[in-house]
Amino acid sequence: MRAISSMATRHLLIDLVAAVADGESPALEIESVGGVDAARRLRAGEPFDLVFLAAGALGSLADDGRVDGATLTPIVESEVAVAVPGGDVEAPARVVGVAFDDEAALRDAVVAAARIGISSGPSGIAVRQLFADWGVADRLVEARPGVAVAELVAARQVDLGFQQASELIGHPGVRVLGTLPHDCAIRTVFAGAVAETATDPLRARRYLVALAGACSADLRALHGFEMPVSLRGD
Which residues pair with 188 in a beta bridge? Predict the structure, then answer.
């Protein structure tokens, strides 16, 4: 089977595929690219069996008839985090706490920054909306699709970087300050769905269920994710 995913979940998916490997399940080849590119390729008709993207992007693809909306399965939830160049300081394996006390403190830091890195995916869109009235539009540096904001931060091409926590943690040369303050937090649910081009939709759906079931709390935390609110039962 063949799957495509956004970069945000690539490491998690590698571990999930390993977790469900039993010698009998079909092999799954996952190509991880920028979410914008993934959606474009699906709309162009490129054949895949499974798709792993932000839930909103999958919903749009379902509306376009590119994935089976009935199979859309939430897997993890991620918060946008803030990072700065870390020099020789090793980035922590996990994000701990929030970066600023509140939105006002975040705004002060953003307004003071000369260059601000954002992604081309859902988090970048949400960050642009948050910063819309802060007068920093000309200082936003958008990473190319498939390029992590962490790369811009580590290369000191930006002073602040905003992206999904899973894309920032553990990257050399990057110091993660924490997630956004609670009064302006940006959260994204990442999900999987069976592509309309799947050669065996039933087998693909069973595999998707197995992957979602293997996503334990420890594995989510290891990669900077949480359980989606819709699955928490609260």
Answer: 78
